[in-house]
Write a structure and sequence with these properties.
With about 450 residues, the protein is α+β, with helices and mostly antiparallel strands. The protein has four domains: about 1-30; about 135-210, no CATH class; about 215-365, no CATH class; about 370-448, Resuscitation-promoting factor rpfb (Resuscitation-promoting factor rpfb fold, Single Sheet), CATH 2.20.230. The protein has helices at about 1-35, 55-65, 95-105, 110-120, 135-150, 180-185, 210, 230-245, 255-260, 290-300, and strands at about 40-45, 45, 70-75, 80-85, 90, 125, 130, 155-160, 165-170, 175, 195, 200-205, 215-225, 250, 255, 270-275, 280-285, 305-310, 335-340, 345-350, 355-365, 370-380, 385-390, 400, 405-420, 420-430, 435-440. The strands form ten sheets. It has a four-stranded antiparallel β-sheet. The protein has a three-stranded mixed β-sheet with strand order 2-1-6, with helices on one face. The chain has a three-stranded mixed β-sheet with strand order 4-3-11, covered by helices on one side. About 25% of the residues are buried. The model is unreliable at about 5-35 and about 110-115 (pLDDT under 50).
Length: about 450
């Protein structure tokens, strides 16, 4: 019985001591904490302990008053780029920092606050001073840097050497990982090192070696010649040839010429040169691009491809027989050819300005052992003569105003040859209007 009385007395003493300790702790906590930040709480290396939130905010603002004069340094090996903080709206949310600092020992369960107050936790509490940015401005700056940093990939391509197709391997590039680099910048703290290593990723080429490595057969090729004296026209032929070179057309796909070379304008690298408009020659941007169209048309016919859309010129051209030309007008008239084979085709186009020729080769995988030849059948139409009286000329005297030109009716056939068998396919029938010869004839005044 005495044993139980002693145990009860001991429990009473423990309860009383615990109550007194808690009461004393609460009193001390209230007395020591007040409205100030606990000692040992820091932000950006500044000890905010003992400061009121208002004073702490003023101290932080003063420390970073010249923040806009600093820059972020993006690093990539031995290369670096500066991004001024002022240009991306860099700022610190000081009130949020101070609020977080003040919360140490002032918020949460009582036991935790008491522990923070009486223990050593507050002495090692560092509040991060994060920076905020204008995301759109930062994105623009990253894109600017990436334009200098990125190494563009190079597509695999095919060229013709010694009448054979040769593969030029692709090369992989690299570019900035925008999301990764942005995350690293957003994690920066004011007053710390503002250097950030660029996060990068591999940039793959659009055309890889395996996409074209087996397209080693010349399915069709065509060469046309042009005069080198017209710099504008030669430049346009070269530009259009560059634009269609390297185009890969999958099975069943349609290649549209205008889509590849447009817009035909001065800002897109084209020059003014003579073009056929109606029955007249006028200077306009892109004069000469139709010769590349025509050359592609010839190669496509010999490759046995399906011609989806093609229009002749209103007047015959000098570089091919009537019926073998193809004209285009930007946004109005196009040339389109379909790859109706079971494997891709690849367009190889080159213009040699100093030698005056453009060549187009259709590369692919030959299907079957047949080949094609093109047979144009052309009928010449006499231009006729128009006589006009001119009283200023002597009677019987003549003067040619326009020499005129003949017209043509052209039928083009594609002949598929397989051993001793031939199959003819009518491709087109075109009519080129003749232009009459115009002659002035002198008449006497009496005959008028």
């Amino acid at each position: 019985m005495l044993k139980y009385k002693r145990l009860a007395a001991l429990l009473v003493i423990i309860v009383l001591q615990t109550t007194l300790a808690i009461s004393a702790g609460g009193s001390v906590f209230k007395e020591r904490s007040g409205e100030i930040i606990l000692p040992g709480v820091t932000a950006a290396g500044i000890n905010l302990g003992g400061m009121t939130p208002q004073i702490a905010e003023e101290v932080l603002r003063a420390k970073f008053s010249a923040l806009a004069n600093d820059s972020i340094t993006l690093l990539a090996g031995d290369r670096q780029w500066k991004i001024p903080l002022e240009g991306i709206g860099a700022a610190c949310n000081y009130r949020e920092v101070v609020s977080e600092a003040f919360a140490v020992g002032h918020s949460g369960p009582f036991a935790r606050r008491l522990s923070e107050l009486l223990g050593s936790k507050a002495e090692n509490t560092a509040i991060p001073v994060r920076m905020e940015f204008n995301r759109e401005a930062l994105q623009r700056e990253l894109e600017r840097v990436n334009s200098e940093y990125a190494l563009k990939p190079v597509d695999a391509r095919l060229v013709v050497e010694d009448e054979k197709i040769k593969l030029i391997p692709a090369a992989y590039g690299n570019e900035m990982d925008m999301e990764g680099t942005m995350s690293r910048i957003l994690a920066l703290q004011a007053g710390a090192d503002y250097s950030v290593a660029i996060s990068s990723k591999t940039a793959a080429p659009l055309v890889k070696d395996g996409d074209i490595a087996d397209l080693t057969d010349i399915l069709g090729e065509c060469t046309t010649r042009f005069e080198t004296g017209s710099a504008g026209r030669a430049g346009n032929i070269s530009k259009a040839s560059e634009r269609i070179d390297g185009k890969l057309v999958g099975p069943g796909e349609v290649f549209a010429y205008n889509e590849a070379i447009s817009p035909i304008s001065g800002t897109n690298g084209y020059y003014k040169a003579p073009v056929i408009v109606g029955d007249q020659l006028v200077d306009d941007y892109g004069g000469g691009v139709c010769q590349v169209t025509t050359t592609l048309y010839g190669a496509s016919l010999l490759a046995g491809l399906e011609i989806v859309e093609r229009y002749p010129h209103s007047k015959p051209v000098k570089y091919v027989s009537p019926g073998l030309d193809a004209t285009v007008v930007d946004g109005v008239i196009d040339f389109r050819v379909k790859n109706d084979l079971t494997s891709p085709i690849y367009i190889i186009s080159s213009a040699v300005k100093d030698k005056g020729y453009v060549k187009v080769v259709i590369a692919g995988k030959k299907e079957g052992s047949s080949f094609y030849r093109i047979e144009p059948q052309v009928k010449t139409i006499s231009p006729g003569i128009i006589m006009k009286s001119n009283p200023r000329l002597k009677s019987g005297q003549t003067r040619v105003l326009d020499r005129g030109s003949p017209g043509f009716e052209a039928s083009v056939y594609r002949v598929s040859v397989y051993g001793d068998n031939e199959q003819r396919e009518l491709i087109s029938k075109d009519y080129y209007q003749p232009e009459p010869k115009i002659v002035e004839v002198g008449v006497s005044q009496g005959s008028m």
